[in-house]
Design brief:
The chain has eight helices and no strands.
Length: 210
């Protein structure tokens, strides 16, 4: 990993940890916040730090292997947030059997899609193939764009950055939901050079000696 990339990741680590600590403290100090919002904030902070450490020290295990781990972490977050919640919410649509079916199957196919993304992206990334990198980029750009737009419109989950656009912010849980942005973004950054460098194009990533 180049010095510049390592420096950027180090800065992101410091800023991310600082931002998350303030968020957790704010959640704990909010009398209206119950156990679940606070636990979500703390859990999100722990996973976010793990993501950044994997990215920062990816050279030790192999940048493409580490990228595969990050793709998997992001997919797990999407499955839990969107797949799992959609399946659970399907049961609340009493009297709307048609909608319940579509809700439930949307959750199931979200899980299937994330499994396929992990298999395709990690397999191709480990082989330093550009198709895997572009597949992950597509998922992040398209899915992330809809996430931000619809999240801001329907349920911000307490995301502080939405205030910069002058939007009212309600709800909680952004610390967990937006982890996949961090995980997949870091995976794209650390895998970019090995995937697109002509000298190792098509090579399988190998761990570096400690």
């Amino acid at each position: 990993m180049g010095t510049s990339v390592r420096g950027v990741l180090a800065v992101l680590l410091i800023l991310g940890v600082t931002f998350i600590i303030f968020s957790v403290l704010n959640s704990i100090g909010d009398e209206a916040a119950g156990f679940l919002p606070t636990a979500t904030a703390i859990g999100g902070a722990i996973v976010a730090i793990a993501i950044l450490f994997i990215a920062l020290f990816s050279q030790r295990v192999g940048q493409l292997r580490a990228a595969g781990w990050l793709v998997t972490i992001g997919a797990v977050v999407v499955v839990m947030e969107h797949g799992g919640m959609t399946i659970l919410d399907a049961g609340n649509l009493l009297g709307k059997s048609h909608s319940r079916l579509h809700f439930f199957m949307a959750g199931i196919f979200t899980i299937i899609a994330m499994v396929l993304l992990v298999v395709v992206a990690t397999t191709l990334l480990r082989e330093a193939r550009r198709e895997g990198w572009y597949a992950l980029l597509f998922a992040l750009l398209v899915g992330g764009t809809f996430e931000l737009v619809m999240g801001a419109s329907w349920y911000p989950k307490g995301m502080p950055l939405f205030r910069l656009a002058g939007l009212s912010v309600s709800g909680w849980g952004w610390q967990w939901l937006y982890l996949y942005f961090l995980a997949w973004g870091a995976a794209l950054v650390i895998s970019y050079r090995p995937v697109f460098a002509k000298s190792i194009e098509g090579a399988v990533d190998q761990p570096h000696a400690a």
